[in-house]
Sulfurtransferase TusA family protein
Amino acid sequence: MEAAKVLDAKGMACPMPIVKTKKAINEINAGEILEVHATDKGAKSDLAAWAKSGGHELLKDTEENEVLKFWIKKG
């Protein structure tokens, strides 16, 4: 999946991954994809809820080597 921007939020505790994601999503255009990497387990439910409430679409999320990866399409 081709992301317009990649956000490294690894090692950050809640609420920083959301704060950084919010800032990063404002730097891309509608329809573009933001890829987020996080290690905070709470980010999974937080980012899904945040994307939905903000009118964005969580396209996919995976976990590899304890790093959660999310692809969010800007609404």
In short: Residues 43-53 form the longest helix (11 residues). Residues 5-73 form a domain with the Translation Initiation Factor IF3 fold (CATH 3.30.110.40). The first strand starts at residue 5 and ends at 9.
